[in-house]
Amino acid sequence: AHADGNYYIDEEGFKKLEANGQIRRIVAMLESLLDIATSEARKGDRQGLAPVNLSLLAERLADLYADSAEESGHRFIVAIAPGVVIDGEEMQLTRLLTNLLDNAFKFVPPGGTVRLALDPGPRLSVADDGPGIPAEDAGRIFGRFERGLRTPADGQGAGLGLALARAIAERHGLTLGLAPSECGATFLLEPEAE
C-alpha cells in the first residue's frame, strides 16, 4: 500500500491477474463442455432423477434475481404456479434456469422487462423485451460456441450457456426452444412431444 492507502498493481502483477482470469474462463468453459457431454450421454436415462418441486426452485431463483433486477434498473415479472413437480436433478435444473435468466438480464437494457412464468406441464418461459434474436440466428443459438448478434460488446461468455441449457432440458425429457414473440426473446421449456 502506498502512503495514500491505495494499492497499486505493477505491469507484471496486472499480467498475472489477467492470466489468472483467462485460466478461470478456460476452466469454466471446460466444465460447461463436460456438463453438456454428460447431459447428452444421459438423455433418456431416468437413473439419478428424483422429484423436484420446480415451483419452489423457480421461486427461490426469482427471489435472488429480484434484488439484482432492482439494482440494475430492470422490471422483473414473476408468475409461478404452485406445486409443479418433475423428476430431475435439482442442481442441473437450477443451472438451466439461471442460464436463461442470466441471458435475459444481460441482453435487456436498464428499464427493460424480464418475465419468468411457470405453469403445470411443466411449461416454463423466460421472456424479455430486449433487442430480440434475429431470424438468421434463431436456428443456431443453441449450438456450442454460438453467440447471437445481440451479444454485448464486452464479449463475455463462450457461447455455451444455451447449448448447456438445451442438453439439460433433453436429459430431463424436455425441449428448450425459442418461441415466437413480437419483441425481445422468449425461451420456452416444455415436455418433449410424444
Features:
194 residues; alpha+beta; two-stranded antiparallel ribbon; 43% helix
Q: Name the helicity range.
A: 40-55%
List low-confidence stretches. 148-154
- What's the total number of strands? 7
Radius of gyration: 19 Å
Q: How would you write the strand order of the largest sheet? A: 2-4-5-7-6
Largest sheet: 5 strands, mixed
Number of helical segments with 4 or more residues = 5
- From the N-terminal CA to the C-terminal CA, the straight-line distance is 65 Å
Q: What shape does the CA trace take?
A: globular
Which range does the strand content fall in?
Answer: 15-25%
The secondary-structure element order is: HEHEEHEEHHEE
Query: Helix/strand-derived class?
Result: alpha+beta
Mean pLDDT: 78
Plain-language structure description:
The protein has 194 residues and is α+β, with helices and mostly antiparallel strands. It contains five helices and seven strands, in the order αβαββαββααββ. The strands form two sheets. The chain has a five-stranded mixed sheet with strand order 2-4-5-7-6, covered by helices on one side. A two-stranded antiparallel sheet has the order 1-3. A hairpin with a 5-residue loop joins β6 and β7 (185-191). α2 (54-72) packs parallel to α3 (90-107) and α3 (90-107) runs antiparallel to α5. It has helices at 11-41, 54-72, 90-107, 135-138, 161-171, and strands spanning 50-53, 75-80, 85-88, 113-119, 123-128, 174-179, 185-191.
